[in-house]
């Protein structure tokens, strides 16, 4: 491959596309051809250029929209924006990527002048929801908003970085450098780029951030508050300390994960012995593992990863329990050896999502880094737990085997088939020190944007105490602390969580 260039798109164009010209858009000129090689600059000035993109960047801002289409009770329209990969360098010089958003309104409101609400998905590395009907929080939001669902850069239809597309890079160094542009700072840059071209008169919009989306919303508050009318955060108030906060996060999270394990085994005590038997089987197998359908391997420590999805969200305990119901093949022929079933091995891989969303593993610890490296924080902090999370030792001693939570370990890139090609790039990112800032504490202390946040008391993913410490630094924030919902409360509550937060800001809910 010659000089490294960002592709215009990894997607085929939609049929019947047209340049967008609704009553609330700006006219845009085509993007220039990609004729420059990729350059990487890691100056902290990059984040401050969120506001500097503004009107002189129209040449980069090709905007294409589709016709409206329908799902039950909703009308939807797709938009694709050509944006700079790197906002810190000259607009013409930067390679381009595509950012995809989907506009959603209630049927019959297509032409109404509604306020805009941008939804920022959890992650990192996951695409936005695909609505199939008007339901849950989206139905509630569409009662008063024009909702914008954004695939954050590198996910979904936004120049997706998949196991196959990332294989185009010739070296781990090239890939690692490219990936440095896929954090919250540039997600906010993209949001501002789109807001100025989609919202009438470039007006401010409401942002709803779920989980990692709340981290992005806090970055937004730090560096581009002029683009915000109000902010709603659900299970996503980040740590904002300088350096890398990952060590603090994981020390707190390992404690919460232990608590979730205790609750799980109290609900399903019969699973203690079943999971011990699986761990012993894996440990005693040749090499200490069995082969997965993808070609990866399942080890005792790999089995513990099921806690990532099983321990922290509603119905997670039940789904985890039912998964282990079919862990063993039946013995059909007398004397046949005991084996883990293909059904279980296949379900295990589908449970983890690393094959379809590798960015989560590669970029996860970088979300905590400002001017310092993570150096595989979760791996180091796990070593401080006095073998409490040693699955083989627990099984031998007759103790419950503890599942792990939202942690990424370096051995993922040896054992998980889809991640193996990115082992060296992941190590480079783990050791990178010169990460630009993601938050500005002084700006948050002087915040003028109305903010309401749902803080889940037993949240396994975003620690309650750390979240409340950050909340104390955001001027004017209103927090709703509850143990009625888990981390997935926005999804699980129907419209109740978003209704509560909007009510806190519009006067329907009292201050005390």
Protein architecture, described:
With about 500 residues, the protein is α/β, with parallel strands linked by helices. The protein is about 35% helix and about 15% strand. It contains 20 helices and 15 strands. Strands 1, 2, 3, 4, 5, 6, 7, 8, 9, 14 and 15 form an eleven-stranded mixed β-sheet that branches. Strand 14, helix 18 and strand 15 form a beta-alpha-beta unit. The longest helix has 22 residues. The N terminus is likely disordered.
The gross shape turns out to be globular
For the sheet with most strands, the description reads: 11 strands, mixed
Q: What is the total tally of β strands?
A: 15
Mean pLDDT: 89
- What radius of gyration results from the CA coordinates? 23 Å
Q: Which parts are unreliable, with pLDDT below 50 for 5 consecutive residues or more?
A: 1-59
Name the helicity range: 25-40%
**End-to-end separation:** 62 Å
The count of helical stretches stands at 20
Pairing-aware structural class of the strands and helices? alpha/beta
Residue fraction in strands: 5-15%
């Amino acid at each position: 491959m010659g000089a490294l260039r960002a592709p215009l798109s990894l997607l085929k164009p939609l049929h019947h596309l047209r340049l967008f010209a609704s009553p609330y858009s700006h006219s845009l000129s085509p993007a220039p051809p990609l004729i420059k090689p990729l350059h990487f600059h890691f100056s902290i000035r990059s984040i401050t250029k969120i506001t500097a993109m503004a009107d002189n960047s129209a040449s980069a801002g090709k905007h294409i929209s589709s016709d409206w289409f329908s799902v039950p009770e909703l009308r939807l329209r797709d938009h694709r924006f050509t944006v700079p990969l790197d906002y810190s360098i000259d607009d013409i010089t930067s390679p381009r990527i595509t950012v995809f958003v989907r506009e959603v309104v209630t049927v019959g409101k297509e032409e109404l002048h509604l306020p805009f609400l941008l939804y920022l998905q959890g992650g990192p590395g996951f695409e936005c929801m695909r609505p199939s009907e008007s339901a849950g929080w989206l139905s509630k939001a569409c009662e008063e908003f024009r909702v914008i669902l954004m695939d954050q850069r590198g996910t979904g239809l936004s120049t997706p970085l998949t196991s196959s597309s990332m294989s185009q890079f010739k070296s781990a160094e090239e890939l690692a450098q490219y990936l440095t542009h896929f954090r919250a700072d540039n997600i906010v840059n993209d949001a501002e780029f789109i807001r100025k071209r989609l919202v009438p008169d470039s007006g401010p919009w409401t942002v709803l951030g779920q989980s990692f989306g709340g981290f992005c919303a806090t970055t937004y508050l730090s560096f581009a508050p002029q683009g915000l009318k109000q902010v709603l955060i659900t299970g996503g108030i980040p740590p904002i300390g300088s350096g890398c906060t990952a060590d603090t996060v994981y020390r707190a999270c390992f404690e919460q994960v232990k608590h979730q394990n205790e609750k799980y085994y109290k609900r399903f005590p019969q699973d203690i012995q079943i999971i011990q038997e699986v761990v012993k089987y894996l440990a005693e197998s040749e090499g200490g593992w069995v082969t997965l359908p993808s070609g990866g391997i399942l080890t005792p420590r790999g089995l513990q990863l099921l806690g990532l999805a099983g321990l922290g969200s509603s119905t997670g305990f039940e789904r985890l329990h039912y998964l282990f119901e079919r862990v063993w093949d039946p013995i059909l022929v007398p004397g046949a050896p005991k084996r883990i079933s293909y059904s279980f091995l296949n379900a295990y891989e589908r449970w983890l999502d690393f094959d379809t969303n590798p960015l989560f593993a590669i970029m996860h610890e970088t979300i905590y880094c400002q001017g310092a490296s993570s150096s595989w924080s979760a791996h180091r902090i796990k070593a401080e737990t006095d073998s409490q999370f040693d699955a083989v030792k627990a099984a031998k001693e007759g103790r419950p085997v503890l599942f792990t939570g939202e942690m990424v370990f370096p051995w993922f890139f040896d054992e998980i088939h889809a991640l193996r090609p990115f082992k060296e790039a992941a190590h480079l990112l783990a050791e990178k020190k010169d990460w630009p800032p993601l938050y500005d504490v002084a700006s948050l202390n002087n915040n003028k944007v109305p903010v309401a946040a749902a803080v889940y008391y037993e949240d396994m993913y975003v620690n309650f105490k750390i979240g409340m410490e950050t909340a104390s630094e955001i001027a004017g924030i209103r927090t709703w602390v509850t143990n009625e919902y888990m981390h997935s409360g926005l999804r699980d509550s129907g419209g109740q969580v978003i209704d509560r937060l909007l009510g806190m800001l519009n006067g329907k809910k009292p201050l005390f």
